[in-house]
Design goal:
With 250 residues, the chain is an alpha/beta fold. It is built from nine helices and eight strands. The radius of gyration is 17 Å and the shape is globular.
Length: 250
Amino acid sequence: MTSAGNRASLDKRPDEVAKMFDDVAPRYDVVNDVLSMGQTRRWRKIVFDAVGARPGQRVLDLAAGTGTSSEPYADAGIDVVACDFSLGMLRTGKRRRPDINFIAGDATNLPFADNSFDASTISFGLRNVNRPKEALAEMFRVTKPGGRIVIPEFSQPVIPLWRTMYTEYLMRALPAIATKVSSNPDAYVYLAESIRAWPDQDNLSHWMQDAGWEDVAYRNLSGGIVAVHRATKPLVSATTSAPAKPLAES
C-alpha cells in the first residue's frame, strides 16, 4: 500500500510506482536538480559520452520520464526513443520537447522488435522496475548485436565513512528537503528507501552478465553514490563471461 495514496512501496507494484511518478511529474526535474546539488547535468553528460551514439543511429532511453535524459541525443541529431510507463511524465516531457519521440511502455515487456536499437540506456530507473532482471533481458533483446547498454544508477559509496554520511543524508536530509520543494515528499521517502535497498555495483554487474551482456564494467561517480555500468551485446552467443571491471572513479 502507499502512504496517503502517494508513496510506492518497495515491492514496486507498477501501478503504484507509475501513480507516484505521475504525481511528481510537473516539478520532477527541478526537484532532482536540488536534491542532487546540480550533479544531474554532469551525470547526463557522462552517460551520453558512454553511450557513444552517432547521428543516424537509434537509441532507446528507457524510464526516460520527462525526457531530460533524452535531450542530449535529440540535440545531437540522434534518433532517440523516450520510453516510460508514467503517462504523467510522458505528457510533461512532450509539452516541453515535442520533437522527441515519447512512447509508453513497460520495461519488462518492451513494445519494440528484436534488434531495434544501436544502444539502450536507463537512467536511475532500473531501481523502480518490479522485475529488473527481466528489464535487462528485454533491453538485451531490443539492442542490436554489437550494441551497447549504459545504466547509471544510485549505488554504494566505496569509503565506509562516506557511506555512513550518505545514508544519513538519504534517510534524514533528503525527505526534509523534499518537503520544502516537492508537491509529494512521500515519493522521496520511497526514493531514499529504494536506494538503500538496491544492490551494489558488483551485484548489478552480475545481473547484467546473467542477462547475456558481455564486457561489463562500471565507473563510480561521486565516491560511488552513482555508478555508470556499461556492457555490449555479443555478436554471437557468449559461452563464458568475465567478472565486471571497475573503471577509474571520478
